Structure formats: structure tokens, C-alpha cells
């Protein structure tokens, strides 16, 4: 769309001063304006650079309007844009509706009250969430490690407006921002499979895009079957775990993406999963167990603050109808703890 308008202006088919106007949008063959990825960060940068007006496709108006004090003018087609510059139609300035403060939790999120037993692991998760600590859960298959990890979004405190804008910008650049949700208010919970590539985890491509560690910014990166991710993949996490950013270098230059996430890992104690289990004998030889556990290096372990052992749950606890403590009560304690830390530092 900017190229088409530039041709119209240079050939004097349209007269307009666009020196203080940013134009964004893809032009389809039928003349309509299509959605463009990364509208939110581009509008934010335009506002910082002193551009007073932003023209966007109608589909991107709600996302662009998240930047306060920016004048957003949406259009459906190039012909409508030309009519506006010729003075034939008024400017259709966009007024955003009030955005819902609450957004739904991820579909697989589980309230802590419905998880039977594992009280000490729940406490470890609460402490980790309150302090933003990295945590690894170790236990046999079926002990509830994944279920416990999926309960973490229910006790995380709500994001501030600044954090929500940070996360929304990342998803906008990645093309993953839902059309009906202009502002992401729920903290991300990303759970990539261990077959993921290096570029998929840390980001990359010819035109670098954020990877899973940036998509989990201000949220949780859950790595199930942690040793299966491989040594090289886990080692690439060391720098973002320390610096809270990830730098991707290409021939054209370097790109820096935010990566301030809480790492949650789950792993078996051995390849079969039953090493040290009181109910089932482990057939793995000690050398194989040692080699399996050494897949996670010492420098990586140094960046993990809490290790929680997740044992088998007794049958009596599984069949107990009583509910545990609800996530809302735990979340209130987490919010209070973070408030104390904020005041202290």
C-alpha cells in the first residue's frame, strides 16, 4: 500500500502531505488492504519517532489502537484511501472499544484444587512462581508432573499493561496474534516438543522471527522430558536464562528479542522412569542411569533454583473426593509475595 500510494503521489494523480503519516498494509490484487504482521511494534516506533497519524488496514485497526495518543485511520481498500486523500470522503478515524481486562486461561490449565496429593510439589511451585524461579520436577511416569506444570498459569499474577504490550508485540511480529484478541493479557504458557529445532526454540530464519523462548516472555516455558531435548538445545538456553534476552545474528545484522521467562522442566530419573521407585523395580543399569542424567550439564543446572521430587500418588489419595486449596487462594499469596519484593527492591 505505501508503494502504491507513492506511485500515485509521484505521478500527481493524488496530492497529499504524508510527511507525518505512517502507512502500513499489504495490497492484494483486487485492491483491498490485507492484514500485516508486526503492526503494534511499528506503530509504537512511529509514535516515538513523532509520526502523528497512522494509516492501517481495517483488520489491524484494533491492534494499532493499543498505542495511546496515536491517530489511527483504517481503510478497506486502496480506492477508499485515494478518495480520502482527494477529499471525497471524511477520515474514518478509529475509536477503540474498551478491551476486556480478563482473558481466558489456556485450555489445558488445571486448578490446583483438582490435583490429588503432591502437597510438597504444590508448595515448591508456589515458591517458584512467587520468586520467578526456574524449577525442575523429577519423578516416575504418571506421577502428575505435566499436570502440575499446567496448573502454573492459574497461580501466576496478572500481567501489567506494560508487560501485556511487550508480549503482544512479540506475538504480532510472529503472526500469532489472534484477530479477536488485540491485547494478550494472559501470561504465555509454551510447551514445545523435544523434537523442536534450534531455530524453533531460540528463533531464527532468513528474516529472524522469535522462537519459543521469546513467545514465553513474561510467562512459562515448559520442557517436558527435559533430557530428551539434547545437549546442544539445552545449552542454547543458558544465555537467555542469564541475560533475559536472546540475540540472533545473521549476515544482514543482529536482532535482539526479549526472553524473560520462567523455566519449568519435567524429567524421569532414568530412561525407564522407575529409578528409586518403591513400587516398581528399575531394570536400567547404573551406567545408563548416570549417562541419562548427565545429559543436563552442570552450567545448565546452576541456572535452576528449585528441584522437586514428584513421587507416585497413593491410591487412597487418588480416590479421595475432598478438594485441595484452590488456585485463587495460592495466587493471592503469590501476588502478595511479589508486592513485598517490589517494595523491598
What does this structure look like?
34% of the residues are buried. With 345 residues, the protein is an alpha/beta fold. The protein has 2 domains: 2-85, Ribosomal Protein S5, domain 2 (2-Layer Sandwich); 112-344, 3-Layer(aba) Sandwich (Rossmann fold). A hairpin with a 2-residue loop joins strand 11 and strand 12 (253-258). The two termini are 48 Å apart. The chain has helices spanning 2-10, 39-48, 61-64, 78-85, 119-131, 145-150, 161-174, 198-202, 212-215, 231-236, 238-243, 286-293, 298-302, 315-318, 327-344; strands spanning 21-23, 26-27, 33-34, 53-57, 71-75, 135-138, 189-190, 203-204, 209-210, 220-224, 245-250, 253-258, 262-267, 306-309.
Report Rg: 25 Å
Mean pLDDT: 89
* Residue share in β-strands: 15-25%
Widest beta sheet: strand line-up: 7-10-13-6-14
Poorly predicted parts: none
Just name the CATH architecture of the largest domain: 3-Layer(aba) Sandwich
Structure summary:
The chain is an alpha/beta fold. Helices cover 35% and strands 16% of the residues. The protein has helices at 2-10, 39-48, 61-64, 78-85, 119-131, 145-150, 161-174, 198-202, 212-215, 231-236, 238-243, 286-293, 298-302, 315-318, 327-344, and strands at residues 21-23, 26-27, 33-34, 53-57, 71-75, 135-138, 189-190, 203-204, 209-210, 220-224, 245-250, 253-258, 262-267, 306-309.
Amino acid at each position: 500500500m505505501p508503494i502504491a500510494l507513492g506511485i500515485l503521489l509521484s505521478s500527481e494523480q493524488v496530492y497529499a502531505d504524508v510527511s507525518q503519516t505512517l502507512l502500513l498494509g499489504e495490497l492484494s490484487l483486487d485492491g483491498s488492504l490485507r492484514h500485516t504482521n508486526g503492526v503494534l511494534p511499528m506503530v509504537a516506533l512511529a509514535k516515538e519517532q513523532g509520526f502523528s497519524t497512522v494509516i492501517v488496514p481495517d483488520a489491524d485497526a484494533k491492534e494499532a489502537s493499543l498505542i495511546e495518543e496515536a491517530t489511527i485511520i483504517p481503510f478497506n481498500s486502496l480506492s477508499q484511501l485515494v478518495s480520502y486523500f482527494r477529499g471525497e470522503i471524511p477520515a474514518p478515524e478509529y475509536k477503540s472499544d474498551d478491551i476486556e481486562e480478563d482473558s481466558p486461561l489456556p485450555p489445558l490449565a488445571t486448578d490446583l484444587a483438582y490435583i490429588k496429593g503432591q502437597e510438597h510439589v504444590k508448595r515448591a511451585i508456589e515458591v517458584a512462581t512467587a520468586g520467578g524461579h526456574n524449577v525442575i520436577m523429577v519423578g516416575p511416569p504418571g506421577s502428575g508432573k505435566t499436570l502440575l506444570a499446567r496448573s502454573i498459569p492459574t497461580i501466576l499474577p496478572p500481567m501489567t499493561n506494560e508487560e501485556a504490550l511487550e508480549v503482544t508485540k512479540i506475538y504480532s511480529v510472529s503472526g500469532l496474534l489472534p484477530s479477536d484478541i488485540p491485547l494478550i493479557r494472559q501470561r504465555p504458557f509454551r510447551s514445545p516438543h523435544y523434537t523442536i529445532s534450534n531455530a524453533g526454540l531460540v528463533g531464527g530464519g532468513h528474516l529472524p522471527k522469535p522462537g519459543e523462548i521469546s513467545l514465553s516472555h513474561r510467562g512459562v516455558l515448559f520442557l517436558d522430558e527435559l533430557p530428551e531435548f539434547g545437549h546442544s538445545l539445552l545449552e542454547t538456553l543458558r544465555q537467555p536464562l542469564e541475560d533475559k534476552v536472546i540475540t540472533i545474528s545473521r549476515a544482514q545484522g543482529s536482532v535482539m528479542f526479549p526472553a524473560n521467562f520462567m523455566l519449568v522442566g519435567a524429567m524421569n530419573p532414568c530412561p525407564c522412569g522407575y529409578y528409586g521407585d518403591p513400587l516398581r523395580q528399575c531394570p536400567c543399569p547404573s551406567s545408563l542411569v548416570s549417562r541419562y542424567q548427565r545429559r543436563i550439564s552442570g552450567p545448565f543446572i546452576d541456572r535452576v533454583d528449585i528441584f522437586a521430587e514428584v513421587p507416585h500418588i497413593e491410591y487412597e489419595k487418588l480416590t479421595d473426593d475432598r478438594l485441595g486449596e484452590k488456585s485463587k487462594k495460592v495466587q493471592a499469596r503469590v501476588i502478595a509475595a511479589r508486592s513485598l519484593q517490589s517494595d523491598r527492591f
